[in-house]
Every structure is written in structure tokens, then in C-alpha cells.
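Hi, here's the filled form for the chain we discussed.

Project: internal
Contact: R.S.
Residues: 662
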Amino acid sequence: MCRRLNKSLKTAIVSALSKLLHRMKPSRRHLELLSPAKNADYGIEAINHGADAIYIGGPAYGARAKAPNTVADIERLLKHAHRYHAEVFVTLNTIFHDNELEGAREIVQQLYEIGTDALILQDMGLLEMDLPPIQLHASTQTDIRTVEKAQFLDQVGFSQIVLARELDLKTTQQIADATSCNLEFFVHGALCVAFSGQCFISHAHTGRSANRGECSQECRLPYRLEDAQGRVIGNDKHYLSMKDNDQSANLRALIDAGISSFKIEGRYKDLPYLKNATAHYRQLIDEILNDMPEFAKSSSGSCSYTFTPQPEKTFNRSATDYFVNGRKADIGAFDTPKFAGEEVGKVTKVGKDFFEMTSTVELHNGDGLCFFDVHKELVGMRINTVDGNRLTPNEMPEDMRRGMTLFRNRDHAFMRLLEKDSAARKIDVDLNFYETPDGFALSVTDEDGCSATALIQQEKQPAQNLEKAETNLRENLTKLGGTDFSVRDLSLSISQAWFVPASAVNALRRDAIEQLIQVRLVSYQRPAQKAPLVPPAIYPEDTLSYLANVYNKKARAFYEKHGVRMIAAAYEANQELGEVPLMITKHCLRFSHGMCPKEAKGVIGVQGTVTAEPMTLINGNDKFTLKFDCKPCEMHVMGKIRKPVLQMLPPQPLQFIPRVKS
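And the returned structure, exactly as it came back:
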């Protein structure tokens, strides 16, 4: 039989199979809030503030090289998360050298043994190794922008895939209709300007590869933009820096389009950001769950907060919903990649060690204010004292002027709330206190249906004060303040009011709660691994360029098994020495400057007739030619690898420290 099916027949079969798999999806979809964690302590706080799942870096090989965590710390986070039936996903989402694969496999084995719920991967070479039966998620670095790519990853064993940030609702819906896996989408935080996994500027210039977790963030640098004739369109602007993602207003539309996991970016962000963003989206998702009973929560418990979540108060570069509702012009943070904060007023007077301002909000001692100086740089200061409209900073800025607009990027009062214990997460339980032949019993049933019963032998003595006896009994039974639980309902199944000593009631309650905790831990089921399609699914293309990030023999074998005939080495192998796209992005500088040929054919503007000629980005001695592929609406940032980088390669493998078993 021919090894390759006719393309149209293959498409028809895949489509039919995908529809069948989609019909097998559970009728009641679970919605998951997925929060980042720099370390275990951050992850625990994210759980306390309402996250259904956490993603965190492992001991090595994560796409955030500066946020590694030991196996022991991840185990500590797992124990806390599983109390609420929340999950922990560990990132191993770099590409691997051949000599790193065995170390990665050993880490996977250790993570499986401690109960890790899933791995987030980029390198397909791991799928060719003897891994334990742990659930696999496709990282954002796998660059999932098409229905065909999503179908393929669905069919080779990924239970959850994170879609490209650049997708609109229509394409998202098409992917949902064609797949059976869970779909994950970034809803908050920093935006990489490039398609994830498709940016090589950092490696080309510094040898630090974004696909190896060491991005140097050259996209946040200032550039001069010139047209094809060398005319300056703009100078000293951060033309590759995007505003931050905020899909708060689009959650219902994303759910309708098939998204079930809502991901917050920020494994490098501070704790106030994590608390604030997690609480914000927890409240929004809970509102949706209350309105739409056809959806279910992914974990247990409800949260209360000591603060009102306000995502604009913690780090952001202003907000955009990016391409979810189509292309928009105002998505760039061109003025600064820093956090400017909320506009609060203008300077009216400048003194020797103070200034006065008109303020639209209440300011506090300790607030952080900033402004753009005459060089258009963001200048910050801390306010020591606020006396009406007169403010005294810790150090008076040199070039503050009347009329300057001031922003607040640190609300001291708000941050103080977040620096303390700021959330409590409680699981609802129903209590039933009843008589037994030789004493009393307490049954506890939680919101997930887990139950436990404690018994106590106790002589039954009629109460002398019936009302007081019942009041005391109810108060003692419901004292759950130091536990993970709160009482939703209490029933007393007794024939008469009995005198039950408080010590006996307290012991009964503690015993029942301790048993329930154990029942919950035993009842928790790690998500199952998904089996790949047999025979192996065929990859949508039979040729892969360096953009596929194939960096080891196992990855090559994977794609060959799935029908790919020609496979180029990853850019990190330094095969592509000439000028190639170092970044591919949906962000278009022609469009943002009103020069898009699609939008303004034949229009004469300040730059002359709009044409398809390239532009140039310049930073110091670095020059990037911008080429525009208008059919898919993409901008290619062209460049080549610097020669000094060649002397640094091949990179040394990351150090792997084996876990010592006790």
C-alpha cells in the first residue's frame, strides 16, 4: 500500500476523525485559571488567591532560565495545590541538545514520582523517549496558529495546547471544532512581539537563545525607523515593544470559541502582580460560572480577599486585547517598555525640594510617581510626604517642569495590602451531627462529594438549658477557622437537646476534618496521559525549515515518523549564517503608521505613496530590514548571526543535579 495517502483523502479522514473526537468531549466543560509561579511560595499564594492550576519551572530546561526550582520545592507546591484539587504543570519547554535528553528524561521521571500533573513541552524529541505516563501539554513555543498544527498536536498525545496569542476568535473556534484536547489561551500579561518560538534575534546577537530560556529582550530596545529612501519615520521609539495583554472583556467570547484554560503570563513578575492578576480573573471567571451552569470549576474552594483586585495597579505597559477581535493600530508600547502607571495629574509649580500638582486621585506618602522628561525617558521618584497638592519627593528630579503629566506606578496603600496575607481559600462543607447508640457522630461532606465520619463515645445527659445547649453545640461544631473548610450547612439529627462537653465536640470536629483531608488527598486523581493516534498522524508539511526548532536526533526521528521528508537544523545550530527572518510577527509597523497597502492603496501621505518597499530598524550599529508579507499580514525582521557568536558554540549543556532519594 502506498505510504502516503492522497492529500484530499487524507484531509477528509483527518476532518472526520477530528469531528468524532470533538463529539467525545465532556458535555460540561471545566474552566481553568492557570497562574504562573516563580517559585513554590509564589505558587502557593496563587493557589490561595484562586488559581485552578500553576505552571512553574523545573530544575532545568524551562523557557525562563532564571526561574528554576528544585524537585523538593515543586513537591511542596504539589501538596498544597492538591489540597484544593488544583494542578501543577512543570515547564520543560526549551529545545534540547542530544547530550541533554537523558538528563531531561531523568527530571521527568522525578517529577512524575512526586505527583506532577503535567509537563509543558516544546521539543518533540521528548516524545520519542521512554517517559512515564504523565500528561503532556504543548507549550506556546510550539507556535500553534493553524487548525492543521493544532490537529496534529492533538493527535500525537498532547492533552492541552496553548494557542498563539495572535489568534482571533474565528480561528480559535475553528481549532476547537477540529480538536478534542483542552485549549489554553493567554489572557493577561506581557506580549512577545514575535510568534512564540519564532524569534532568533537574541541568539543571533548574543548567543542567548529564547528557545533555550535566555532571551535578551532586544524587542524592548529603542530604535530609529526609516523608510526605503532613508527618511526617518520615527526616532528613539520602542517599535517592537507591545502593550500588555488584557482579555478581561473577552472571556465569555473566548469560552464560546472553545477556550477552557485561561493563562496569566509572568513567571518573572513580583508577588503583588501575581496576587492581583489571579484574584482579578478568579472573580471574573466565578461570575461566568454563576451565570453559565453548563460550565464547571476545575478546582475546589472559594476565595475572599482583603483588597479589591485592580490589574492596572501592578506592572503593565497599558492594555490591549491584541488580535482577538481583529487587527488594531494601537497595540504598541512605543514610548517605554517600563511601567508608567495611571495618569494622576499635572505639575503646576516646581520648588527647590517640592512640587505642586493638580491630582485626580488621592495620593499617599510612599507613592511612586513618574513622568517623561525632555528626552522622552521615564523618570521616577518616591514621594516622602503629601500635603494637599504639595508633594515632597525623596530626591527632586532635575528636569521637572510645569505642565508635565505625572503618572503613579506605585500606589503605596494598595501595595501594602498585597504585601500582607491578602486571601483566604475555603472549601464548603455540610455537617451532620447525630446520635449513635453509645454516643455521637459527625459526618462531613465537602463540595466535591468527599465524606468522612467521626465517632465519639459519650454518656448522654439531657441539657438543662435547651436553647443554650443547642447554641453552644452549633458554635463548637462550626469552628473551622484554621482549616481549609467553611460550613455551608449544619444539621442536627438528635432526639432531644443533650449536654455535650465542648471538649468532646471539638475532638469530634477535629477528627472528622482530619479524616476528610485524608479522603480528599486519596480521592485526588492525577490527569491521565493521552494516547497518540495509531497509526501515527501525518504532519501537515513534508519539509521543515530552521523555524521548526529541530535541535536533536530524537526530534528529527519524531518528525520523520510523522511523514516529514526534509528537516533543517534549528537556528541555534548556526546553519543559517546569511540574512533570514530573525523574527516573524503579526505586529506591522506599516499598519501602525497608517501605511498599510491593504488599508490605503494609492493614498499619498507624509511618507509618499504607500508601497511594498522595506523599512529599516536601527539601534546603534544594528540594522534590521523589515519585509512585509501582506497575504498573511506578517512582518519579518531580517538579519544574520554575528560572527562572535560562532565562537561561543556549541553551547554547554545545562547542569543537572540528580535528586538524592532518602
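Let me know if anything looks off before we file it.
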